[in-house]
Amino acid sequence: MPQQNLAQKIYAAVRLIPKGKVASYSQVAALLGNCNLRRYVGNALHKNPSNSITPCHRVVNAKGFCSGSFAFGGSGVQRQKLEAEGVAFVKGHVDMERHAISQDDFDAMSERLQEITAKS
């Protein structure tokens, strides 16, 4: 799959993360069918051409920590965006028990992503 198409598929997957929920880089990569793409997911999200369309702030690391200060316009911006959506933090990271996508969420997102990419 060409890199541009892969990036577009990543953005489509991220747009499916429900408001008030987060997914890890590995979960987004798993939606694409390859957990080993997690670093590529991070790279693509860093280059996201439109944060207003693709809510990259909903992707955190597996432990729930936000991206470094370079992302989203400065230190703390990702956290502010998540908190504005009702995401709670515990000891400096997202409360993953409450806000990580569930298996049901993942399955629904995977099905929807297949529908979207089949049309492309």
So how many helices? 6
C-alpha Rg (nearest Å): 13 Å
Overall strand count = 4
* Helix fraction bin: 40-55%
Q: How does the major sheet shape up?
A: 2 strands, parallel
How far apart the termini lie comes to 13 Å
Q: Taking strands numbered 1, 2, ... along the chain, how are they ordered across the largest sheet?
A: 1-2
Low-confidence stretches: none
Q: Spell the H/E element sequence.
A: HEHHEHEEHH
User: What is the residue-mean pLDDT, rounded to a whole number?
Assistant: 91
What structural class is derived from the secondary structure elements?
mainly alpha
Strand content: 5-15%
Shape, please?
globular
Write the layout of secondary structure elements.
Blueprint: H1 3-15, E1 23-24, H2 25-31, H3 38-46, E2 59-60, H4 77-84, E3 89-90, E4 93-94, H5 96-99, H6 103-119
Explain this structure.
With 120 residues, the protein is mostly helical. Helices cover 48% and strands 7% of the residues. The strands form two sheets. Strands 1-2 form a two-stranded parallel ribbon. Strands 3-4 form a two-stranded antiparallel sheet. A hairpin with a 2-residue loop joins strand 3 (89-90) and strand 4. Helix 2 (25-31) packs across helix 3.
Explain briefly what this protein structure is:
The chain is mainly α. It has helices at residues 3-15, 25-31, 38-46, 77-84, 96-99, 103-119, and strands spanning 23-24, 59-60, 89-90, 93-94.
Provide keyphrases for this structure.
120 residues; mainly alpha; two-stranded parallel ribbon; two-stranded antiparallel sheet; 48% helix; globular
